[in-house]
Every structure is written in structure tokens, then in C-alpha cells.
Amino acid sequence: MSRVLWTVLLVLCCASPALSAPQIHVSQQEIDMGTLYSGQKSKHVFVIENQGDKPLMINKVRTSCGCTSAFTRDKVINPGESTGLAVQFNSKNFRGNVVKRIHLFTNDPSGKTELRLRGNVVVELSLKPSRVQLGVMEKGQTVQVPLTLSNLSDQTVNEVIVRCTSRLMTVENLPQQLQPAESVALTLTVNVPDQPQARVNGYLLLSGRGHVLNQLRIPVTGGTGK
After folding, report:
1. Residue 15's pLDDT is what?
2. CA dihedral defined by 133, 135, 140, 145, rounded to 10 degrees?
3. pLDDT 10s digits, 143-180
4. Which of 20, 68, 210, 212 ranks highest by number of CB atoms within 10 Å?
């Protein structure tokens, strides 16, 4: 009987150090950000809990790209305690469905922990075409190009402004605001130089404030022949 008792005690002594370790737990490892308008910033907090019996150390936090930031003040979480990991996603220059990953590197024996942000990024203000290619034009003529400006959101877009980087270009019929789901026809007028092999290049810089401050940059390219 004594031999069996000693065997049991030996097993327990050997097993107890293995059970003594930090254990990370995140109840919600993926957050759905829903629909975002391009340029919106989405902020969330992941709750990180230590369900082990040793302090949990957060050694490193790494995000999948510069568009996503993550920060926590607590680098050490005692057993039974928790902390928040504040994350922010900047949707500027994104379109469509996005998934952003945050990796936590801790002293949990299981290795790194992956968290995810998921959402759908849509455009609020749209100008079509998104690129104007004038091609080869006759010297001294005036070229007019139809454009369509649309508000694709459920909110009025105010302070609509357009600036042409070339003095050869002007945009007409521009409204100061666009109602939800409204589209208007614009006209781009280009005064072609009266000289051979002249380049007609520039940008239409358009902005408007709705859910976000929309900023569009439409390239215009063309030139004259010999």
C-alpha cells in the first residue's frame, strides 16, 4: 500500500509544474465591424483574460497592415484578471470585404493568438469615369467630356468642391450638395492648346463631406498630334 501511495504522490508532484502556467482566453476572437464608408475609422476592444495560474505576459502585438493599430496598457495580466486590447481600423483606400488580423505573442504555452476584424467597405461619393483618357486631340479645339457624380450613401453630402490642377480644364454644373442616392451630370471642358505634340494632363480633385470627408483624385490624360 505504501508503494502505491508513494507512486501517486510522485505522479502528482511531477504533474503539478506542468499545470502551473498562464492561459490566455479571448471570448470574442472576431469582431464584425459591419458596413463602413471608405475613410471611416472603426474602433473596438478585445477583452483578454488570464485563466491560468501564472502571470500572462503580452510580449508583442502585431497587426496585418499599417491600416490597423492595436494597443494595451497592461503587459502583465495576473491569474483571474483581464485587460482590454484597443484596436482601430482605418478604411481609407479600401473597397469591398476586408479581414484584418491581430496577432498576440504571449508566454502562454499554446503559442500566438489570432484576433480578427471583419467588415465591408463601400464608397460614399463616386465620380464616373474614374479615369478620363482624352487620347489624341486636334489642336485648338474644345473637348467636352460627360461625367456622373453620385452619392451612394444614406446621408446628404455637403461642401462639394472640385479643383482642376490644369488651367486647361474646367468642370461645370457642380452642385454644392448631393442628396442620398442622388446622381448629377457634370461636364468636363478641356481647352486644347493650339500647338503640336502638347500634353494635356492633370487631375480633378473632388471633395465632399458626408459620413466621412470624401476625397477623389481623377486623372485626366491626353495630348495633340503633330
Report:
1. 47
2. -30
3. 999 999 999 999 999 999 999 999 999 999 999 999 99
4. 210
Q: What is the CATH number of the domain that holds 209?
A: 2.60.40.10
Q: Residues 197, 158: contact at Cβ < 8 Å?
A: no
**Other residues' Cβ atoms within 10 Å of the Cβ of residue 36:** 21
Could you tell me the pLDDT band of residue 16, with boundaries at 50, 70 and 90? very low
> Of 122, 140, 157, which residue constitutes the final position of a domain?
122
Q: Write the pLDDT tens digit of every residue in 57-105.
A: 999 999 999 999 999 999 999 999 999 999 999 999 899 999 999 999 9
Tell me how far apart the terminal alpha carbons of the chain are, to the nearest angstrom: 108
Domain of residue 38, residue span = 21-122
Quote the number of domains for the chain: 2
CA 192 – CA 134 distance, rounded (Å): 10
How far is Cα 131 from Cα 203, in angstroms, rounded to an integer?
9
* Residues 76, 25 share a domain: yes
For 10, the grid coordinates are 510522485
Q: What is the DSSP letter of 7?
A: H
Distance (Å, rounded) from C-alpha 219 to C-alpha 128?
12
What is the pLDDT, as a whole number, of residue 132?
97
